[in-house]
Design goal:
Amino acid/polyamine transporter I; about 500 residues; single chain; amino acid transmembrane transporter activity; mainly alpha
Length: about 500
């Protein structure tokens, strides 16, 4: 008789198609970081500085995704990078990364549904915001509870909306630059304006590294979905290469267009933040091109982007908790999937934590800000874990006598790729709040960098309790096939 867990996993795999994976990986990297925060990035570092920062982080993300792709095509598994840390580095690292990442996305869902209320106030300012947030949470839970395919289809179409919006923006922006639409063409005048194209020097670029890093978070969903892909050896490499070119086109070209049309000193760029979600450099460009209703249209696009982020967050955190249960890092009930292939108990717990976090914004604002701050850097910590895991995987692979020709997909420029990702992620984490570090503002430092001690607590707890050690390269488990339930054997 077939194992019900394995049977449900097979159903999940059959539902994930290559077109979904590539579009969702792209959609996961296009969100409010591009539509909203890109303006503040240009204001902080100038047009040239913003372009350098986004290009550097984009290259780093590409190398990071090729690292994840090499491991995911060789050993596809749900919640992959926490499982890889367990197998290739130290079970304590896998434990800490898994819980850290789950916590991050559970909190992010709460932040996103709170943002939904801010966006809806643009049209319905007199309706209590919590109503919109509750509706959004119920909608996201329902999408994830119906079936795996319902999640993929929803994300696929939400991603298409974002992609089409950016393409239209680029065309209209180009026409505005050369003077076909709107006012007289701007050309390169704003790149030479005052202190442009570089403003605030290296500190300015480092500051934008942080903004760009947050903008690209979500691309690691390729690894989370690896265990549910019918043909990971084909779909994952294709998705990675498509994401690289699309990031280049969408992010780099979008930053270029915005910086050519709007001067970096413009107050509209300074207002581009999550606190004023209705202000977007995209909106300003559309308005300058003479398009009526631009603000309302962009607000609708930003709404779909936030819902997409919350939907992806619910999926990612649910699958991570599911994977951790199969590794023995969480209760066994979280590793059970229903007949539709949904790890329902993992979904329920994630939804509960997201709802409770959202409620703290009403009953305890300080607690809410504490939770949001605690999850702030966890995405970068996950990226560091991916880089370390891949470096160890490749070294163990060679040490044990394997040939690179055995790999279905090769990461680019090893070991440069993972080492570059490691260095830049550390720089981004340090640069999160350079002013507080320079001023020795311990309260601000504690709030900003709270994710780090929380991660260390998880890591040290598991390491001391189970007395785990760094796995020798010669003993790293490199079996070419893997079942989720086999991951339990890697627990110390």
């Amino acid at each position: 008789m077939e194992d019900p867990v394995e049977d449900s996993k097979n159903r999940m795999k059959r539902s994930l198609k290559t077109r979904h994976l590539s579009m969702i990986a792209l959609g996961g990297s296009i969100g409010t970081g591009l539509f909203v925060a890109s303006g503040s990035a240009i204001s902080t570092a100038g047009p040239g500085g913003a372009l350098v920062a986004y290009t550097a982080i984009g290259i780093m993300v590409y190398f990071l995704m090729t690292s994840l792709g090499e491991m995911a095509t060789y050993l596809p598994v749900s919640g992959s990078f926490a499982a890889y840390a367990t197998r290739f580095v130290d079970p304590a690292l896998g434990f800490a990364m898994g819980w850290n990442y789950w916590f991050n996305w559970a909190i992010t869902v709460a932040v996103d549904i709170s943002t939904v209320s801010l966006i809806m106030h643009f049209w319905l300012p007199n309706v209590p915001g919590w109503i919109f947030s509750i509706i959004a949470l119920i909608l996201i839970f329902t999408i994830n509870a119906i079936s795996v395919s319902s999640f993929w289809e929803t994300e696929y179409w939400l991603a298409i909306i974002k992609v089409v919006t950016v393409l239209i923006f680029l065309v209209i922006g180009l026409m505005s630059i050369i003077g076909i639409m709107g006012r007289q063409g701007t050309g390169l005048r704003y790149w030479n304006y005052r202190s442009g194209p570089f403003v605030n020097g290296i500190p300015g670029i480092l500051g934008v590294f942080v903004v760009a890093g947050f903008s690209f978070q979500g691309t690691e969903l390729i690894g989370i979905t690896a265990g549910e892909s019918a043909t990971p050896e084909k779909s994952i490499p294709k998705a990675i290469h498509q994401v690289f070119w699309r990031i280049l086109i969408f992010y780099i070209f979008s930053i270029l267009v915005i910086s050519l049309i709007i001067p970096y000193t413009s107050p509209t760029l300074l207002g581009s933040s999550a606190k004023d979600i209705a202000i977007s450099p995209f909106t300003v460009v559309f308005q300058r091109a003479g398009l009526a209703g631009a603000a309302s249209i962009m607000n609708a696009v930003i709404l779909t982007s936030v819902i997409s982020s919350a939907n992806s967050g619910m999926y990612a955190s649910t699958r991570m908790l599911y994977s951790m249960s199969l590794q023995g890092y969480a209760a066994k009930s979280f590793g059970l999937a229903n007949k539709r292939g949904i790890p329902i108990f993992s979904l329920l717990l994630t939804t509960l934590i997201s709802a409770l976090t959202f409620l703290t914004s009403f009953f305890g604002p300080k607690l809410y800000l504490f939770l949001v701050s605690a999850s702030g850097l966890t995405g970068f910590i996950a990226w560091i874990g991916i880089a370390i895991s891949h470096y160890r995987f490749r070294r163990a692979f060679i040490k044990q006598g394997h040939k690179l020709s055995e790999l279905r997909y090769h990461a680019q420029l090893f070991p440069f790729g993972p080492l570059l990702a490691l260095v830049l992620c550390i720089l981004v984490i340090i640069g999160q709040n350079l002013k507080s570090l320079a001023d020795f503002d311990w309260i601000s430092i504690g709030v900003t960098y709270m994710s780090i001690p929380l991660f260390l607590v998880l890591f040290l707890y598991y390491k001391l309790r189970y007395r785990t050690t760094l796995i020798p390269l010669s003993k790293v488990d490199l079996k070419s096939t893997i079942r989720d339930d086999e991951l339990k054997q890697n627990k110390a």
